[in-house]
Amino acid sequence: GIQVEQSPPDLILQEGANSTLRCNFSDSVNNLQWFHQNPWGQLINLFYIPSGTKQNGRLSATTVATERYSLLYISSSQTTDSGVYFCAAVSNFGNEKLTFGTGTRLTIIP
Amino acid sequence: ETGVTQSPTHLIKTRGQQVTLRCSSQSGHNTVSWYQQALGQGPQFIFQYYREEENGRGNFPPRFSGLQFPNYSSELNVNALELDDSALYLCASSSPANYGYTFGSGTRLTVV
């Protein structure tokens, strides 16, 4: 099945800094999503982005499907951005299941 | 539109017992997927239901079973609980017309 890898595994930043999270995937995809998991376990959908670029406030994401990677950008980080960020993808081949990466744990220090 | 709701939020069971977790899908979504998330790991796919039929299964033993009802809500049943079944169980709904998945807030199961 599809492999989804995320980097870095951990990131500690000062409030106000910018960050870039990366997701590599092994197959062509028909679905790619970025999620933020808060400390209570809730997975919040940030972007549905199998290709192209999207922006939502301080967050933006770009997926280059032909090169099999996606990037999540967070600008002017706030402490509420802390948590684990997951990338998840559905392969064009095989079962229609969403496969998650191992996540990036982001900690924003005031 | 209503989101995905899961119940209960927390549960403590004894090894060997059985448990049923419930999930109501988002309005307009006809597909439900269940995931297990152990501490410090990413969610792992258990199975998916579409129109009341199992539509894909991950690497989980048969003691993990499920149901989907005509209103697209779903149950996850786990028999003969083991200590390693302690985890956050997440339900997600989706629709073929919109491939985005929406997740519930999860059920945290502790097996003692």
Descriptive terms for the model:
heterodimer, A: 110 residues, mainly beta, 6-stranded mixed sheet, 59% strand, B: 112 residues, 7-stranded mixed sheet, 4-stranded antiparallel sheet, 55% strand
Share in β-strands of chain A: over 45%
Structural class of chain A: mainly beta
**Mean pLDDT over all positions of chain A:** 94
Strand content of chain B: over 45%
Spatial gap, N to C terminus of chain A: 40 Å
Number of helices of chain A: 0
Total beta strand runs of chain B: 11
Helix content of chain A: under 10%
Oligomeric grouping of the chains:
heterodimer
Shape, per Cα inertia axes of chain B: globular
Poorly predicted segments of chain B:
none
SS content category of chain B: mainly beta
Largest protein interface? A-B, 23 and 23 residues
Short description:
The complex is a heterodimer of chains A (110) and B (112). By secondary structure, chain A is mostly beta strands.
Textual characterization of the structure:
The complex is a heterodimer of chains A (110) and B (112). In chain A, 0% of the residues lie in helices and 59% in strands. Chain A is mainly β and 110 residues long. In chain A, the strands form 2 sheets. In chain A, strands 2, 4, 5, 9, 10 and 11 form a 6-stranded mixed sheet that branches. In chain A, strands 1-3-8-7-6 form a 5-stranded antiparallel sheet, with no helix packed on it. Chain A starts with a strand and ends with a strand. The model of chain A has no long low-confidence stretch (mean pLDDT 94). The N and C termini of chain B lie far apart (38 Å). Chain B has no helices and 11 strands. Chain B has strands at 5-7, 10-13, 19-24, 31-37, 44-50, 53-57, 64-68, 74-78, 87-95, 98-103, 107-111. At the A-B interface, strand 4, strand 5, strand 9 and strand 10 of A face strand 4, strand 5, strand 9 and strand 10 of B.
Give the SSE layout.
The complex is a heterodimer of chains A (110) and B (112).
Chain A lengths: L3 E4 L2 E5 L4 E7 L3 E9 L5 E6 L3 E5 L2 E6 L4 E6 L8 E9 L7 E2 L3 E6 L1
Parallel strand pairs in A: 2-11
Antiparallel strand pairs in A: 1-3, 3-8, 4-5, 4-9, 6-7, 7-8, 9-10, 9-11
Chain B lengths: L4 E3 L2 E4 L5 E6 L6 E7 L6 E7 L2 E5 L6 E5 L5 E5 L8 E9 L2 E6 L3 E5 L1
